[in-house]
Structures are given as structure tokens and as C-alpha cells.
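pasting for ref
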Amino acid sequence: MTVANIRTMRDSTAMRWIVLILISGLTFSTYWFQDFMSGLKGIMESEMGFSSEEFGRIIGLTTIANMLGMILVGGVILDKWGIRLTGYVFGILATIGAGTTALAAAGFFGHDKGTILTMMIVGRIMFGSGLEILCVLATRTIVKWFKGYEMALAMAINIGFGRLGTALGMASSLDIGGGKFSPAVTFAATLIALSFIMFLIYSVFDVKIDRQAHAAKAGVDSVPEEEFRFADFVKLITDKSFIYITLLCVTFYAAVFPFIQYAPDMLINKFGFTAKLPAEGSVMIFGSEAMGIVAVYLVLFVFALAFSIVPSRIANINYRRIFTYSLVTVFAIVIYNFWDILQVWLHNGSKTASLIPLGTIIFTPIFGNFVDRKGKAASLMMLGSCLLIFAHLSLSLSNSVTLGYLALVSLGIAFALVPAAMWPSVAKIVPENRLGTAYATMFTVQNWGLGFFFWGIGAVLDLVNHDNLAAIREGKMNYDYTIPIMMLVVCGIISIFLAALLKKADAKQAYGLEFPSSAKK
């Protein structure tokens, strides 16, 4: 008898996708909470009296615990404790942190600016300490359930849920809060609590599959898995392919995530977009504008999933074409009927900035499916880095609104392309029982880059506009974003170089990054 002959829950397609939905709740809510403040920067300045540097400080210090090694400790804990216990500990930490941030914004700890700022930072640090571990945990769970099946596609869909959280947080927080800051924070914190409940439901299935795996191994001659050793970590961080993909993770995400936080404000200041959505751009459902916005993004998300998943699973080529053409036709009809509203959205700062994560919602599952079937992961990372450079050069040097739209779409595609290729590649480079440590190492190094750029862009923005800050706050002048965005162009150039080195190293080490997910090393 062999382990391979015994079926477990992971062999059920329906069960795998139920698990994916439950675990993606964590990804959705954590990305919402991470990014929802980007659409509220103007309100934070006018209502709370925060400066750009203080806004950047709140966002940047979210990563401080992970910069100091919290996520690396969490990754080792994940490999030693397993998914459930790690999820309980860090899920509770993230939930308490989100709650603390919401209470601070509501004035629970005091109403003076200094107290609110301090306690919001404390809450964000607690949330951030759990955030990245939960992202690692979600990725590790997908490997557990999908390895040997649709792993790249599942990871891409999970990333898509995260980008959906970012897009909705950016686009709807102002409307959810009724133009106020505190209600938007409270809603975001509530999502964290609900996603933790979804994880508790998943943990029931995790218990069962572990029992099945244990039963499958009973009576089979096998070598027990080794306990974590420091030598394993040394081997990991000296692997050339792992070094290159980790550094690529840092430079690429440093050029995207911090930009997302400032994108709505940049579009308002540089291109004259509206800060608040005009009445003619409202989509009302049950009398709620926020529910209307959510519905629009969910429809786009469903179309993206249907387009990327269904056709490739229809064996008959004629039926596949019929389905694809029908889906495109229905999508075109939907866009046509909402075109007047979409035109208004495309002149609003937060709605237009949400094109970045919206692009990932549409393209990440498609690219993930491509990586599963065709491979070419390292090559796709190089292409994504090229799109990144084009996007930031266009946004920093040009005042053309049309080119700005194209840049945002390009950035959204890049933001889908690189992660869809990157995260499944790590699972090829690193043994499964060390993936928690590997992903945590990547996120630790990444957080140094993110922390620097989250805070740094705000500080540089205040510095280059120092002589005009008073006029800017009075609405007489606009921020000049040229130099802060040019900083991100450098990150894109370094990303291309690292992707090329990764492709060269893989040719020697034969991890198979350029081959389909099902291919043997």
C-alpha cells in the first residue's frame, strides 16, 4: 500500500475550492484594512489635521514588527505549529490590532491629535504583526490543498481576493464612512473579525485532512519529516534562486504597494480628479451607495474568474469558443449600460486609482492559469517589471490624462503578472515543509522595502513641497508628485535585472520555473 492510493479531502475538487474561498476571506479583509486609508488621505488631513508625513508614518509603521523579524518568527512557528494554531494566534492579534485602530479613530483613548495618532499607530503595528503571517498562512494552506492540482491558479485567485479587498477599500471607504473617517475604520476592522470566523470554520476541515494524511501514512515505510534546523535556514538564504526572487519581491512590491496608498491623492493633485464622487456617478442598491459600489466590483470579479477558469476546462473547442464569445458579449453589454456612470468614476481619484488592483482582479487568475499550463514564470516576471517602469515614468513625467489611464492599467497588469508567476515559483524552489519559513523570510525582507517607501514617499512629498505646504492645505496649490514617483522607477529597473538573474540561475539549478506546474524538475 502507498500513500498515493488513499484518497483524502484534497482530492475532491469541490472541497478544494470551498477551502480556497474560506481561506481567501483572510486575504480579502487584511488587504482591505491595509489599503483602505489611501482613499481617505484628504479627509485625514482636513478632519484629523494629519500631514503627509504623519499619514505615511501610520501606513509605514504597520510593517515595523515584521521589519524586526516578527514574520520570520511566525514562519518558523507555522512550520513547527502548523496552520491551525498559527492562525489562531496571529488572527487574534490582527483582530485586536484592527479593533484598537478603530477605537482610536473614534476617540475612545482621547480626542487630541497626538493621542489618536499614537493609538492608531499602536493598533496598526498589532494588525501588521498578524497581517503578513496570515498572508503566508493562506499561501501555505493553498500549497497544502492544491499542490499537484491547480496550484498557480488557486494562488492567483487568492491574490485576486486580496486585490478585490484593496480595490473595494480604496473605492468605497469614503462612501461607507459617509465622508467621515471613523466609520470607515470601524467597518474595515469588522471585516477582519468576520474573516477570522471564516478561518475558524476552515480549521474544522484542516483537522480532518490532517487525520486523513496521518491514516494514509500509517503502516507505510517512510522517513519522518525532520524538525526545523538552523542549517535549513542557512541553506535557504544562500540559494541563488531564492535570493533573487526575494530581492525581486522587495523591489517590485516597493514600487506598487506604497504607490497605491498615495495614488488617489496624486490623481487629485496632478490631474485634477474629484475627491468626492459626484451624485451622477452613484450606483444605488437598497438605497445604499456603498452597496452599489461593492456590487459593481463583485460583478467584475465574477466575470474575471469565469473568463480565466471556465474556458480552459471545456474540452470541446467549439463549446469553449461559444462560452468565451458569449461571456465577452455579456460583459460588453454590462459595460455599455453602465458607461455613463463609469465615465464619472474615471474622473474620481479613489475610483480611478482602484484600476490598479482592479487590473489584478481581471488578470491574476488568467496569468495564474497560464503559468499552470505553460510555465514561463521568470520571463513573465521580467515582462511585469518592464510594465512597471513604463507606468511610473508616464505618471511622473507626463501630464496627459490619457497616458495616466494607460499607466494605471499597465501597473494593474504588472501587479497581476509578477505575483501570479512569483508565488508558485517559490513552491518549486523550496521544499513544502519549509515553505512557511521561506515565505516569511521573503515577507520580512519585503517589509523593509515597504516600510521605507510607505513612510519615505510621504516625507519626500512634504520635503519637495515644503515652501508650499500652507498654500496646499488651503487649497490654493497642489502637491508635486514628480520626485516621489521617480523613486519608484528605480525599483522597476532593479526588478528587471533581478528577474533576468533569476531566469539565469534557474537554468543552472533546474527548478523548472519556465515549465508548467505539473512538470517534473
